[in-house]
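Input structure tokens:
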């Protein structure tokens, strides 16, 4: 918990320093939001990965901003920890011609090494974890399905597609594009 909060605080400070330099009031508000909002509080209490993800994504964003695509590609390995949360972030990151090869090669190496060390992990996940997690995941699809039934699931997919369409209107370069694709990853987690 302490490591996660420290990583998130450093990441937030770095982002604010890059995007809102010298704005102490806004820095204070974002710091407060990081720790006392319900998602931040739950991430602290439940020991979720959210703070470490914030650190990895923030470092990736700053690496993109500094034109360090290899560093951003390596940092995209964090997406493998919960890939359903980073589908659209990965799309945005990997549109950069120099990030894609590094990120994909590093991801393939991690998957290959884990399969070499634990050859039955894929089968175990597909039989024991996948069916349970995929059906009852915390996503807009499941929430709308619970409320409206099959029509809600269809509406959820339509919302995600509409979000992807809106995100494409921002292109695949620049800060606004990155912000939209990151937000879509959270809202459209599959």
């Amino acid at each position: 918990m302490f490591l996660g909060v420290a990583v998130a605080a450093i990441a937030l400070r770095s982002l604010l320093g890059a995007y809102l330099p010298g704005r102490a009031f806004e820095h204070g508000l974002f710091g407060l939001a990081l720790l006392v909002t319900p998602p931040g509080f739950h991430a602290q209490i439940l020991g979720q990965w959210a703070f470490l993800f914030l650190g990895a994504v923030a470092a990736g964003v700053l690496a993109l901003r500094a034109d360090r695509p290899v560093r951003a590609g390596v940092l995209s390995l964090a997406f493998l920890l919960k890939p359903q949360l980073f589908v659209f972030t990965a799309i945005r990151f990997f549109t950069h011609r120099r990030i894609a090869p590094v990120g994909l090669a590093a991801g393939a190496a991690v998957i290959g090494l884990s399969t070499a060390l634990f050859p039955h992990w894929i089968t175990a996940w597909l039989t024991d974890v996948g069916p349970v997690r995929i059906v009852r995941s915390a996503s807009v699809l499941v929430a709308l399905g619970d409320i409206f039934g099959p029509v809600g699931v269809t509406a959820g997919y339509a919302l995600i597609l509409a979000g992807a369409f809106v995100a494409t209107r921002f292109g695949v370069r620049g800060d606004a594009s990155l912000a939209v694709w990151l937000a879509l990853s959270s809202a459209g987690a599959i």
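DSSP finds eleven helices and no strands in the chain. The chain has a mean pLDDT of 80.
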